[in-house]
Known about the structure:
The chain has 93 residues and is of the alpha+beta class. The chain is 38% helix and 25% strand.
Amino acid sequence: MSSFYYTYILESQKDGNWYTGFTQDLQSRFERHQAGKVSSTKHRRPFKLIYFEGCRNRQDAINREKYLKTHYGKMFVKRRLKSYFTGQEDNDH
């Protein structure tokens, strides 16, 4: 199987703000964030991984990251994770 690039969103448990990024190795990148090895997020730890998507190539992941950082991208994620943010279960399935 060929590799994927992942666009992801972390939620800071310290201040509630989001960090959006992309990587080829999601687990390793998340561990680096948690360990304080990413300079842009080291003072916002700990994190919860709240969302990720897989893309087939790097440029698609970069474009998706840029979109998810926009107002409309954040609205998309909030709608997509409505149950998570409201604490409600989806009983339709």
